[in-house]
Design brief:
5 helices; mainly alpha; single chain
Length: 155
């Protein structure tokens, strides 16, 4: 019973100490509020101070905006192409399409496409030879579908 009473007394003391601490903090805050001058002239001075801080921040924002604009301007395209230059470049490109080089490019593309088709046929034969006879037609059909879908995708 003695141990329980001393624990209760200690916890009661702890609660009282916390209450006193809270009261002292509240009293010091209240003293600070009461000590402030709320006269109209003091409020006007505080208002003028806040307005000057706001205007200083606005000037800083405007300065940063001008700096950002000055950095962004040089990044724009410096030179523009007029219509005659543009038309001459387009005509050069059109002329190049009907040249000998364009024909050779098309021939090379057709040759490579034919080689790829022969490679598909060879792989189909290899794969068919590696499976049982009853599955040969399924393997060949799978390879044919693969070639057809690949051709449509390329087109």
């Amino acid at each position: 019973a003695f141990v329980v009473r001393t624990q209760l007394a200690a916890s009661d003391l702890s609660v009282r100490a916390h209450t006193m601490l809270r009261f002292s903090v509240a009293a010091s805050c209240l003293a600070g509020v009461v000590a402030q001058d709320y006269s109209p002239s003091a409020l006007q001075a505080e208002l003028a101070k806040l307005r000057s801080e706001v205007s200083a921040q606005q000037e800083l924002i405007e300065e940063q905006r001008r700096l950002l604009d000055s950095v962004a301007k040089p990044r724009a395209l410096a030179a523009y192409v007029d219509k005659t230059e543009f038309d001459t470049e387009i005509q050069k490109l059109k002329d190049a399409d009907f040249s000998h080089g364009g024909a050779m490019d098309s021939a090379w593309l057709l040759l490579c496409g034919a080689l790829v088709m022969f490679m598909h046929a060879g792989f189909a034969m290899l794969e068919t030879g590696s499976c049982r006879a009853k599955n040969a037609s399924n393997v060949l059909m799978k390879n044919l579908v693969n070639v057809c879908v690949g051709t449509l995708g390329w087109w």
